[in-house]
Amino acid sequence: MRSARADRGDEGDFRSLDELVQHADILTFHTPLFKDGPYKTLHLADEKLIRSLKPGAILINACRGAVVDNTALLTSLNEGQKLSVVLDVWEGEPELNVELLKKVDIGTPHIAGYTLEGKARGTTQVFEAYSKFIGHEQHVALDTLLPAPEFGRITLHGPLDQPTLKRLVHLVYDVRRDDAPLRKVAGIPGEFDKLRKNYLERREWSSLYVICDDASAASLLCKLGFNAVHHPAR
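Above: the chain sequence. Below: its structure as tokens.
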């Protein structure tokens, strides 16, 4: 598949999707849905791509449901392909394939972008664009719009391991909070949209301030999106 960014000359280490599929431990989609044209993304993850994923790979779709061929994915899972699947979006929303939901590891009702930070960020972008348009350009600091998080500061001693990272993630957000309600109401008309309209407030990892005495832990947490700093132990 052609890359729009590569075609327009953007800098970057661009690889073909076929190459990525062969080697990726995690393949995650965050693209707009284009139904035709040179950059078509409809069923970008088709039967061929899905079957090319290496055993144990993680497939994530957090953009548009039809980027992944849901029928092909369900067939592969039913036939025993070893994949871990996380779907936030579904073909045919607000209807979804209940049988596919039963097979995926995590399923959520199209709420990946529903963080408080995301909503505030979108609002400030609109405000700043409008103020510039009318000739009174203004800028707003995002943190001035956000309330204090539930957990304001965490101190982490030593290197970062998987159990510790999991605990930090769950301090901010446990995805099971959204997976379980969807499974409970899947297939009931109107319930998918109801989950989205009545969605509880959720923060991003950047809301958690983590003080680390290990430099590698601070670096890794920053790369993951946490607000982490390194303060050596005295």
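The two ends are 53 Å apart (CA to CA).
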